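A reminder from the course coordinator: this example appears on the midterm review sheet, so study it carefully.

Given structure:
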């Protein structure tokens, strides 16, 4: 029987956290205070603790000390799958993006050239486009919609047309291809409640009509900035933790010197 679950990393290979390193350093300080480690051993092991990146690297540091094994990896579970079926950006809900009217653009033509529609435009109830020895792109990620269901009719002759939809939009493809084709990969993905339905029809001869599902640029930038900020905060926390431990070590050395002088 084939196992469909993805391969999981061994426990020793999992990345340790700052909290795990902190627990190991506390255990080392206790061992130093109890006389189980001398200062040189303590400094060597503390340095190895800060450099450790996985549980496998942390485990040997306290293996011969009482209380060893307190740092353990979390239970191994498969990571949740990432779904592209999400709501739109918070600035406009789906009902707010279905605005009625005739649409800001109803057709596009590319003859040995190209066309595109993107940004905050309104998709009409029916949009007709034609590409001959050229290409066109319809980006619906930030678009508004004249109706709950819109139709994009594509004719591609030795050319190509690409339709980009945001997560949460239902896509239905009904086009016909002769020595060409329509992309059906995004069909079957359920739409969000209240989200528009995009029906793609038409004809492709020696050409193609593609369909992509992408997160809006503003949301992608927001996630990128959030990840960058998180990395900076982790780096600063590690720096402060390391400085605190060094101060503690120096203070213990001074105490030992004062004790020796007495």
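Designed residues:
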């Amino acid at each position: 029987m084939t196992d469909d679950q993805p391969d999981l990393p061994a426990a020793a290979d999992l990345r340790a956290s700052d909290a795990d390193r902190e627990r190991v350093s506390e255990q080392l300080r206790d061992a130093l205070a109890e006389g189980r480690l001398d200062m040189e051993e303590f400094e060597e092991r503390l340095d190895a603790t800060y450099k450790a990146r996985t549980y496998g690297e942390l485990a040997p540091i306290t293996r011969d000390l009482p209380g060893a094994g307190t740092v353990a990896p979390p239970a191994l579970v498969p990571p949740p799958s990432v779904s592209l079926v999400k709501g739109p950006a918070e600035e406009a809900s789906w009902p707010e993006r279905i605005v009625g009217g005739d649409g800001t653009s109803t057709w596009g033509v590319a003859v040995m050239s190209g066309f595109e529609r993107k940004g905050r435009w309104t998709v009409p109830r029916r949009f007709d486009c034609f590409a001959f020895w050229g290409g066109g792109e319809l980006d619906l990620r930030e678009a508004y919609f004249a109706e709950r269901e819109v139709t994009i009719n594509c004719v591609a002759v030795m050319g190509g047309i690409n339709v980009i939809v945001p997560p949460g939009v239902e896509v239905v493809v009904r086009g016909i291809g002769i020595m060409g084709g329509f992309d059906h990969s995004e069909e079957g993905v359920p739409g969000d409640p209240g989200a528009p339905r995009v029906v793609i029809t038409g004809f492709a001869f020696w050409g193609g009509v593609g369909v992509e599902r992408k997160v809006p640029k503003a949301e992608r930038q927001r996630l990128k900035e959030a990840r960058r900020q998180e990395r900076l905060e982790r780096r600063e926390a590690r720096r402060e933790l390391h400085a605190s431990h060094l101060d503690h070590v120096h203070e213990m050395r001074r105490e030992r010197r004062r004790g020796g002088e007495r």
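The radius of gyration is 30 Å. The longest strand covers residues 149-157.
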